Amino acid sequence: MGGSEISQRTSSVRVLLAILLLSVTSIAQRLDTKSLRNILSKQGFSGELHGKVTFSRLGTMKCNAEELRVFYYTWEETNPPGHAIHFSQRLIFVEKQTYLGQYVISDRPVLVKPDLLRFPVSEEDGNTLRCDEDGLPKSLYLDGGDRVFVR
Asked: What is the pLDDT of residue 32?
């Protein structure tokens, strides 16, 4: 076996290892509903995780150097006819495998960009969520009311 052939095989092995590493990293970064529920239940999420619960991944936001995954959460409790129906909507933020917190919201965002989330209300009623120098804001004015970031 000549030096050229060894060099070619070494290059091929490196390419295969790089592809394998990228695919493993990609799989590790995905978060299915079961894994998300598990993270939330173990890390202090205050919302309901049983019954009529839905999670929709909206995308990612960059807060400082961190990449946060943003999920839209809904929970609905249906009672027998004639009784009240309870409903909740939240934005949930996860960094890697760590639950960071949530905002209780009144509407789903209509625009998700790496630097902001936009809601279907007027600017004067508060329609944008942006990270500040400390990351996600501890509180913000959104849809005519104050929203607090909580675990």
From this structure: 93
